[in-house]
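Hi everyone,

Forwarding the result from last night's run.
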Amino acid sequence: MQIMYPSTFYSHVKVDIPHELMKHVIGVNGKWFKYTCEKCFVANIWFNKNRSIVEIWGPIHNLMAANYAIQSRINVIKSRFSFDNKEPVKMWPNDEYEEILLKEISIDDKFVGSQLSMDHLRILIGKFGNGFKRITRESEASFIWYNSVQQSIQLWGTREGIDKAKDIIIDRVNTIFSTMIQNET
């Protein structure tokens, strides 16, 4: 099975310096992140303190350059500052990947036989992807994408984040079915 990747994608760089030094990686008012976005043609770069990573979003073919630029900037800061290694830097595990086929989404018994239509999917994804963005934030998954070719929802993140995202997706699908049935009566 071939995986179809979205045109806008996600990558991250692990932060292995104290968070206090990240201000030099980011720059005043995000100067270095903005510069990297412009030079590498990516959409967004964000420091995720909770996960101790720098997240990068943009065209899949530009992510490697941005990834390298951020890692290089972190290495420059490492060489300029001495810091004591007494306090360990939390290392986050690599993201896992899982795919949910739309036809395999388990829904409440009262909706058995119902099919997830494009209208349902549009509601789940939300305008400008805001539904998926909300699920991403709530679950702490890294990235959620709808693959129209395979009719699946693709999830990246920690195992815990993926599991939370799946639960939220199933809950939202059931809510969408419930709302649409109520509106029909």
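The beta strands are 8-14, 44-48, 53-59, 96-101, 143-147, 152-157.

Cheers,
N.
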